[in-house]
Amino acid sequence: MDIGILGSGMIGGAVGRLLVDAGHRVAVANSRGPASLAALVADLGPGARAASAAGAIAFGAPVVVLAIPFGRYQELPVAELAGKVVVDTTNYTPARDGRIAELVSGGTTSSELIAAFLPAARVVKSLNTLYFKTLLDRADRLAPSAERTALFVSGDDGEANALVASLVAEIGFAAVAAGSLREGDARQGTGSAVFNVPLTPAQVPREGW
After folding, report:
1. What does the alpha-carbon distance between residue 61 and residue 68 come to, in Å, rounded to a whole number?
2. Which of 139, 159, 158 has the alpha carbon at shortest distance from 147?
3. Is 129 in a helix, a strand, or coil?
4. Which of 1, 12, 87, 141 could form a disulfide with 67, with the two C-beta atoms 3.0–4.6 Å apart?
5. pLDDT at residue 209 in the model
6. Given this model, what pLDDT does residue 55 score?
7. Domain 2-203 class?
8. Which helix or strand (DSSP H or E) is residue 25 part of?
9. Could you tell me which residues are beta bridge partners of residue 61?
10. Burial class (CB in 10 A: 0-12, 13-18, 19+), 121
């Protein structure tokens, strides 16, 4: 599959590595332009290319991974992301992203804000719970699903959720459904019982799920 990645930091680079190793092709973009990505794409290998943001989005058919700081989501090109399955790997961090009253009060969730900003995109929350080094270390495409580390999938579009769950499995993790975008924030977001804790599916807490 051809997949666009917006963001070339720790998570963007790690996800790119996992996808390329699983046989997918990726186009990576960042805010500094394609020339700044030469070292990263060389390291990822022939399955990776550097692109502008528009190029990475166009390349992603139909998936675009969002690996930017949450606070910059309003810089995303709304029209270009229409119809895309957008994998939201972001986590709201007040110290970095600023105080957002709706999130502090619990009136909405970070993924719901992104989905509202991208009304024609199909937003799925995933790949956000583990540190990038843990992602790279715990991926195991040969292990049975029950023995793999769990990654969570939340969203309001069943077909999009299933597509992201299949990608999670292909890169070597066990996909665990975590409900809607609203439910997923509480279940897999910063400070949750599973955040940055490598667990097999059987070890995932069931209370509140």
Report:
1. 19
2. 139
3. coil
4. 12
5. 57
6. 98
7. alpha beta
8. strand 25-29
9. 2
10. buried
The predicted structure's pLDDT at residue 208: 57
Nearest residue to 92 (alpha-carbon basis) of 76, 104, 81: 104
Question: What distances in angstroms separate CA 97 from CA 17, 76, 120, 121, 133, one per listed residue?
Answer: 26, 15, 24, 22, 23
CA 125: distance to chain centroid?
Answer: 6
* Residue 15 token pair: 């996800």
Residue 22 is which amino acid? A
Tell me the pairing of strands 25-29 and 48-50.
parallel
Integer Cα distance of 169 and 22 in angstroms: 10
Give the C-alpha separation, 202 to 180, whole Å. 21
Report DSSP state, residue 203: G
What is the DSSP secondary-structure string of 27-84? EEE-TT-GGGGHHHHHHH-TTEEE--HHHHHHH-BEEEEE-S-GGGGGGS-TTTTTT-
The 10s digit of each residue's pLDDT in 17-55 is: 999 999 999 999 999 999 999 999 999 999 999 999 999
| Residue segments in the chain with a per-residue pLDDT below the cut of 70 | 207-209
Q: Does the bond joining 62 to the residue before it have cis omega, within 30 degrees of 0? A: yes
Give pLDDT, residue 207: 66
At 1, list the tokens: 């599959």
- Predicted local confidence at residue 76, as pLDDT: 97
